[in-house]
Design brief:
Helix 1 packs parallel to helix 6 and helix 1 crosses helix 13. Strands 4, 5, 6, 12, 13, 14, 15, 16, 17 and 18 form a ten-stranded mixed sheet that branches. Strands 1, 2, 8, 9, 10, 11, 19 and 20 form an eight-stranded mixed sheet that branches. Strands 3-7 form a two-stranded antiparallel sheet. It contains 15 helices and 20 strands. The protein is of the alpha+beta class.
Length: about 525
């Protein structure tokens, strides 16, 4: 199946926020490059980037407890929180740049939503106080508020305290500058801009295979899924390929046969939320409120009651309620998990099953939870909740990363993992949270790994696009980082690593975002 055209410079697989972010950066840095985007679905952002399919938005570590673990001596480690906060600030800087240069129509994809943490019980109240005291010493969190006063919490978020037993010890923190981000709307806006800058978007086109050619380029087999397509399959050659296909990325990376993907597996986790659009309830809760995860549950299952603005519609979301499916995508196949098994990842996958019995028990419990059980969990956050106000909605699929581990055979990670070929000609993204919120830092890490011969020339333009990058690049690029409490490596970027002398605050000066 020969290709009829010259190789395109960049092929992006998947039309979600990661792909849109990378393509936006590359079309700014190299406006003469040819860029093509292939998406198997009939629309944009229909999997993990869809606002109803993701667990949380605008992650800035202001309220997520899994980013601030407790050390054995009782102190709180804020390293991961600083990292995520600075990565999100970097995303905001890019959005500001695109807004200022007319590449985004407006900032309607964001809305103001204070970020809160809410806990109950003496032990958790004590932990939250120590977390607050540790965080407020850092400039990015100096504005954080803390209280144990029920009346103050009720003023911040009335639904948390209505009908709650007065003897129950409670505490909360609040950051009033938090954001809710509709990443589906942002993705669509970015993709529209890419079309204006010469990128070609192909919906209902699925990349079904790829192989490296002798000259180092990649030949992709693309199936046209439109009902009237002729021909049904064609070949596309590319100098660089990014696989941002969510749960579908693992299969394509395996088909590429790059040695870097050997040993990787995937563990799919699905989810559901309770949602309400009741005007009375929505008007009484304007915040993103996180609690503590149940023992044995994955970090992505931390319960939270969120204000959400999706395509201009206000709603409240509570969850997630975790589940399990063999699908790697919400619109995927029940054979996805089986087809991902290879001789090289079988041992890591079996080892993960043996070493994560509490997680498996948790998932079984979640899958078998009754409507009454889901309501009981909601009422721990919102005691006055009534079932008539809430509907159950399906969220997206997440494929957690399984990797080889010398000591345990295999480990399960709950973050994002960027896999790149040694020659930088192909890269793919695996994993989940905080994903979308830190997309810019992840894509900058990709540029450093995959385009080492061009990164020096790009630095001045990148500095203009994201002023936080005007630092010592030698200390902020290409570093190796240990995984944090949620299994997500810090990445190699700066305002991704929290290692620079001048930390970036969560709301960069001059931001045009709310």
């Amino acid at each position: 199946m020969p290709s009829r055209h010259e190789p395109v410079d960049v092929v992006v697989v998947g039309a979600g926020i990661m792909s849109a972010t990378l393509a936006s950066i590359l079309t700014t840095l190299e406006p003469t490059w040819t860029v093509e985007v292939y998406e198997r679905r009939p629309g944009l952002a229909q999997e993990s980037s869809n606002a109803w399919n993701n667990a949380g938005t605008g992650h800035a570590a202001l309220c997520e407890l899994n980013y601030t673990p407790e050390r054995p001596d009782g102190s709180i480690d804020i390293t991961k929180a600083v990292t995520i906060n600075e990565q999100f600030a970097l995303s905001r800087e890019l959005w500001d740049f695109l807004l200022e240069h007319g590449r985004l129509p407006d900032a309607s994809f964001t809305s103001s939503a204070p970020h809160m943490t809410f806990v109950r019980g003496e032990a958790d109240v004590d932990y939250l106080r120590r977390r607050y005291e540790a965080l407020r010493e850092h400039p990015s969190f100096a504005h954080l508020e803390f209280t144990t006063d029920p009346a103050t919490i009720a003023a911040w978020a009335p639904l948390l305290m209505a009908d709650r037993e007065p003897a129950d010890p409670v505490a909360a923190t609040r950051a009033t500058d938090g954001l809710d981000v509709d990443f589906g709307a942002l993705t669509r806006a970015l993709m529209a801009d890419l079309g204006d800058h010469g990128a070609a978007l192909h919906l209902e086109h699925e990349v079904t295979g790829l192989r490296r050619l002798p000259d180092g380029t990649w030949r992709l087999r693309v199936a046209d899924r439109r009902w009237n397509a002729r021909p049904r399959t064609r070949a596309v050659d590319a100098r660089f390929v990014f696989i941002g296909a969510g749960g579908g990325a693992l299969h394509l990376l395996q088909k590429s046969h790059i040695p870097e993907i050997a040993g990787y597996g995937g563990f799919p986790i699905s989810g559901q939320f309770l949602r309400t659009t009741s005007p009375e309830l929505v008007s009484r809760h304007r915040a993103k409120v996180y609690g503590k995860a149940a023992v044995g549950s994955p970090p992505m299952s931390v319960p939270h009651l969120d204000t959400r603005m999706v395509d201009g519609q206000a709603a409240l979301l509570f969850g997630p309620y975790a589940g399990w499916s063999m699908k790697f995508l919400k619109h995927g196949s029940w054979t996805d998990l089986v087809r991902s098994i290879r001789p090289g990842n079988l041992v890591p996958m079996l080892a993960v099953g043996l070493h994560n019995v509490p997680l498996l028990k948790y998932l079984i419990g979640e899958v078998t939870t009754s409507p009454t059980g889901r309501l009981r969990t909601l009422r721990e956050f919102m005691p006055s909740a009534h079932p008539r106000d809430w509907e159950l909605v399906d969220a997206g699929q997440r494929v957690q990363v399984i990797k080889k581990d010398r000591r345990r055979g295999g480990v399960l990670e709950f973050g994002t993992e960027l896999v790149t070929a040694a020659d930088g000609s192909i890269a793919g993204l695996l994993g989940a949270s905080p994903g979308a919120s830190t997309a810019v830092a992840t894509m900058l890490d990709l540029l450093d790994r995959c385009f080492p011969d061009r990164i020096d020339a790009w630095r001045p333009q990148l500095d203009t696009m994201m002023p936080s990058l005007r630092r010592d690049w030698d200390t902020t690029l290409g570093e190796e980082h240990d995984d944090g409490p949620d299994g997500m490596g810090d990445g190699g970027w700066a305002t991704g690593g929290g290692r620079s002398a001048e930390p970036t605050v969560a709301d960069p000066a001059g931001s045009v975002l709310p």
